[in-house]
Amino acid sequence: MDNMLEQKKQRSKYRLQRQSLPEALSESLRERILSGEFKEGDPLIQEAIAAEYECSRMPVREAFRQLEAAGLIVSKIHKGAIVSTLPSEQIMELFELRATLECDILSRSLEHLSDEDLAHSAQILKRLEVAYHTRDIARVGTLNWEFHRSLYRPAGRIQTLAILQGINVQIDRYIRIQLLLTSGFEEAEREHRQILSMCKDRDRQVVEFMRGHIIRAGHNLLEALNKRRVSDPAA
Amino acid sequence: MDNMLEQKKQRSKYRLQRQSLPEALSESLRERILSGEFKEGDPLIQEAIAAEYECSRMPVREAFRQLEAAGLIVSKIHKGAIVSTLPSEQIMELFELRATLECDILSRSLEHLSDEDLAHSAQILKRLEVAYHTRDIARVGTLNWEFHRSLYRPAGRIQTLAILQGINVQIDRYIRIQLLLTSGFEEAEREHRQILSMCKDRDRQVVEFMRGHIIRAGHNLLEALNKRRVSDPAA
DNA sequence: TGCGATCCAACTGGATCCAATCTACATGAC
DNA sequence: GTCATGTAGATTGGATCCAGTTGGATCGCA
User: How is residue A37 annotated by DSSP?
Assistant: First the structure.
């Protein structure tokens, strides 16, 4: 999150984004769910969270509503909230959705991609590789999406990006689990470099290559995940 | 919403779905926004809403969080919430997203479409036509999406349907405005019948026909909307 | 009259309090 | 001993209360 400044560069120069407590809370809680601190099925007790952040239960409740809308938790009336669980088929469906939407947006983006955009992407890719080789899992998850997004932004498709962002939040935690379990990211790393290179050439075949990249990542993830889910019957 | 029972038929037979006040509130408020009672840019004052529903401001605040997550309102800290506004390009983008996702899911659905599914769709279409000819705008909006969804459900793509549902909520209010302004729905009505007929024949060309149907609807909507937006500079 | 500082009303944000509901354990009847 | 019922503790849902912010109105001054 230390690259906020770069991201906001097109906005007003001196804009300080204040956020309400519920927003800050939901951001922090989201990160803790993605990091695996709160696992699938874990109950989230309002009072405990409130105590941790030294605030009342009220902002916690509003944060829960946001997390629920993002699909990270499910809450039943008078029974509290638990971290949501996604069946394998739905995880794969999310990867297929990504494939569909990212191919579409990448195709549109190619026509507007400037050299500065590509330089920016290259920079993110470099940081992503550093994060991967220092085993900084959280940063790998963040930067992986950051890299993809940097390629799509020139398309100017705000709604598509928003949906993709939401999908990414949903699957990020599983990607992190995969990274913790296996080291099957080298393939993705090679592919990322090839994607960037093809984008530099404005080679339209990159669109179909991206589709394969995403679907392969999904399959790899599911394979690792299913191994874990049968051995650990927490699901 | 009177077909709830049908939809839940595969669940436990006697399940009563209680909902919390915030949920009920956000549902009601969403409907009021979609119906145009609250227009783009209108401020939503917590206290006023709470008074209307004879409850405290607390459940209203939680409902606002949900509506914000759905993209129907935007709230600034210490300045309250207003009904969100979508620029024309983003409305068209949402229609293009619909085209992409609905073609994909329809294609998958075709392989599982049973005769019962088709009978159900036909029934909805009939109700949709009744609603249109009795000028029941709210029902037209609801049933239009209901018809589309009934064709996609057999695909079993939960996440895709959830995203499409979200998109539909976003554009429903503009569809209703269009229905109020013009009567350009006859074309869509003809197309609906043709879509259903092609589905009955399991004709795969229905996928591309659906794409045209959605894109045409988007263009018609934007045309009507732009006329209104230049004459009424509320945006 | 025009500009600016100050004050006030309206509203939102957050804390605390009370009520409703669920869970688990204990008690008692058969 | 087992099953049903009752009850207490925990937890959430909703109301009320207080503090902080905003925006506009008012007043003062040049």
Answer: S
Domain that holds residue B64: 21-83
CATH number at residue B216: 1.20.120.530
Q: How far is the CA of A96 from the C1' of C22 (A)?
A: 40
**What domain count does chain A have?**
2
Are residue A55 and residue A115 in the same domain, yes or no? no
| CA–CA distance, B91 with B174 (Å, rounded to integer) | 9
Residues A77 and A95 in one domain: no
Residues A64, A175, single domain; the answer is: no
Coil vs helix vs strand at B6: helix
Residue B66: its chain A contacts at CB < 8 A?
Answer: 65, 69
pLDDT at A16 over 70: no
Which nucleotide is the nearest neighbour of B19, by CA and C1'?
D13
Q: Cβ of A16 under 8 Å from any chain B Cβ?
A: no
Cα(B74)–Cα(A105) distance, integer angstroms:
26
Q: Which nucleotide does the CA of A19 lie closest to, via C1'?
A: C13
Residue pLDDT, tens place only, B127-178: 999 999 998 999 999 999 999 999 999 999 999 999 999 999 999 999 998 8
Assigned domain for B215 exists: yes
How many CB atoms are closer than 10 A to CB B109? 21
Q: Alpha-carbon distance A167 to B48, whole Å?
A: 35
Whether pLDDT at A192 is above 70: yes
Q: Is B25 on the interface with A (CB under 8 A)?
A: no
Domain assignment present for residue A226? The answer is yes
Q: Which residues of A touch B67 (CB under 8 A)?
A: none
- Same domain as A176, residue A96: yes
